[in-house]
Design a protein that fits this description.
The structure is a single chain. The protein is of the alpha/beta class and 128 residues long. The protein has one domain (9-127): 2,3-Dihydroxybiphenyl 1,2-Dioxygenase, domain 1 (Roll), CATH 3.10.180.10. Helix content is 16%, strand content 34%. The protein is built from two helices and eight strands. It has helices at residues 16-26, 71-80, and strands at residues 9-13, 30-34, 37-42, 46-52, 62-68, 101-102, 111-116, 122-127.
């Protein structure tokens, strides 16, 4: 029944205007404002819906992943724009000083780094 549905994902933020600035100015995403919230236009024709929820509580897991060609260059670029990368205890491999878990070198998957938006939603960038 749902196999032909064009499903999409969504998540909440406390302040749509601040979120729109973060996603457009810091992350460089294309964003449309709708009466119900924001639509983030991602590569490949994918959209994610962002809605306002004043009592929003962020998830404790990654809600949006961005595969990139060069994790280190992307971390440097975003860090220079003010994005702070997370450091987590108990990871299967140590993260470097930039917050990048070097999964490829450890034979444990992609290189990956995590950051949060203004409302604590966790995003990642990882190698292709």
């Amino acid at each position: 029944m749902l196999e032909k549905s064009h499903a999409y994902s969504g998540f909440a933020v406390r302040d749509l205007a601040a979120a729109k600035d973060f996603y457009t100015q810091l992350l460089g995403l294309s964003v449309d404002q709708t009466p119900m919230g924001l639509t983030l236009h991602l590569a490949g024709g994918l959209d994610v819906f962002v809605y306002q929820k004043p009592d929003h509580q962020p998830a404790t897991y990654t809600i949006l992943n961005f595969p990139v060609e060069d994790v280190e260059a992307t971390v440097d670029y975003l860090a220079n724009k003010g994005v702070v990368f997370e450091h987590y205890d108990g990871m299967p491999s140590a993260q470097d000083e930039k917050g990048i878990l070097r999964g490829k070198a450890a034979g444990m998957g992609p290189d990956i780094a995590w950051f949060k938006d203004l409302d604590g939603n966790i995003f990642s960038i990882h190698s292709l």
